[in-house]
Fold:
Amino acid sequence: MAEERKVYSRTKGILPDTVSGFCPGCMHSTVHKIVGEAAEELGQLDNLVRVEGVGCCGLGQFYVSCDETIAAHGRAGAVATGIKRSSPNSLVYTYQGDGDLAAIGLAETLSAANRGENFTVIFINNGIYGMTGGQLAPTTLVGMKSTTTPLGRKAEEHGYPLHICEIINQLTAPYYIERVSCDTPQHVIAARKAIKKAFQYQLEGRGYSIIEVVTSCPTNWGLDTLSSLNFLREKMFAEYPLGVFRDRGKETADDSSAKV
Amino acid sequence: MARVEIYTEACKSCSYCVISCPKKTLEISEKVNSKGYLYAEQVRPEDCIGCMMCAQICPDAAIEVWR
Amino acid sequence: MAERVFMKGTEAMAEAAVRAGCRFFAGYPITPQNEIPEYMARRLPEVGGSFVQGESEIASVNMLYGAASTGIRAMSSSSSCGISLYSEGVSYCASARIPMVYINVQRGGPGIGAIQPSQQDYNQATKASGNGGFRMIVLAPDSVQECVDMVYEAFDYAERDQNPVLILTDGVMGTMMEPVVLPPMKSDEELSKCREKFLPRAIIGHPLGQQATCRPGSVGGGQEEKNIAASKLYKSWEKDIKVEEFMMDDAEIVFAAYGISARISKVVIRELREQGIKAGMIRPITISPFPYKSFENLDFARVKGIVNVEMSIPAQMKWDVEYAVKGRCPIKEVLRSGGQLLTNNQVMDGALEFIKEVL
Structure:
């Protein structure tokens, strides 16, 4: 019988013997884990720089093992621009929620994407403001209750959910845009693969990538962890379909294979 | 034989591992960690195939796998 | 290798920054400071630096925050209403103790105000450039040469203190041309030495276990300790106070003015001396820390009054002068604002009117 071997280890990308500050079932924790794993697989943990947004993202500062700074609310795209331009060999990613990236930071988000800045954006979309207590986000679903839309989001009053990947896909510069989730082991594996690919592209100097992770917020959705998975699949995926919006690397690879 | 090791202090009782295990080897136990969460336990280790589904889905990186 | 050239204030400041080792600049167009970003856009690529035109002042100052957090010398500039939008990023830099330099080429205010020169951002610059009660060294030049020298040394202050430094100048200084001596270009060796102190904190990717963090706050606790440490730093600036005491040996009428107002006042003081009036001036060069002692220690048996000259209505620096004078002599205001320039005649008329009352 072959010797027993460890096939899955806790990534060194998160601090040892540390419990994340996120709620039970919150996929912020999952994404922190797979970002660490992706960077570890690329041998980049010593070169990784994290720019985190404000909100629940901020709990990550006590959890990750890499260099990190906290941007003012919404400004991670601008801060990462400054960092990457000044330290071009560092592997830089921003970690932002929907309030941070899609509301207060929309200008910084779109402008960095439009410049094709060579960093990676990890965007957590759970359709609500988490840290401040469940207020309306630009990504809140129509009809979904929040603490500032107690009767549910009304399209005629609050508008419609904002689709960030679709908007960024209108720009010419971005290199790789994918929407993933973490609700099943298979989706977690796919999400890690997407993040790893985005990191790889950055290391190759290809430019801007955004990985949107559609996640749950059991606490502010007012659901238990397993019910929140059902809501995620039934409602959130319907509004925010998973998939690759753009992968210039793949396009190039396909082109070259076609020529051969 | 495959086995999992659960860092019970990090477990927050979300049950994602329980529903993800194809062999139904995991359950939420009656035991409580220092944070007050009932943590997951492998109750049928003999059935574990080391597929790592539990470790992949675990938000809190609380599961390590050997095989 | 000092070099004497004829240059516009804004461009001279930009060149001084490059020579001081500035390798990152982010800014947003706003009059009357546009030549600084324009110059940087041409000049920085020549020295391997990076220029970004931000999508707003908010983005620009946060790019500055990011660039400076890697430990390189980084700068930005804006003007008055644009500087208001800098509050967020400057406060974050002060909280995270990130060294950086920025320039305010003041224009009329409040609001969008006027594009012409003014000195209406004194209180904002010296008292509250953002939330949280942090402080900065604020340098106020009165010539293009001083603009250059101050920008050059501002980076040293910023790195020594790991704190933002502000150059508070105005549209006159920014747009006029004067002969200046440019400082030497700092070598890469000198610059890497400058960087040493910040490097352990630089957000560039450290080996595991040596995590560098730049945190503009303390969610987990410990903010008060950070504030106490910062407060100690602010107190240590007593040694950095710079003030010009002009013809003060026997002065009975003391002008209080900084920047462009001081320059105009100097002409008036010389004329008053010709008329036999013993006038002099205290010109704060660092307006933060403010040279309170220069005013506190005046011989009030001799000094009959103070003429506070500012391009701001209401007066702002006068608060600091009053705080030091403590009612021991009358203070006359000579003011313009909203982009209206002071003239020699106006300052002279105001001074003479006052002199009639107090002498």
Notes: The first helix of chain A runs from residue 27 to 41. Chain A has a mean pLDDT of 96. The longest strand of chain A covers residues 91-97. Chain A touches chain C through 38 residues (CB under 8 Å).
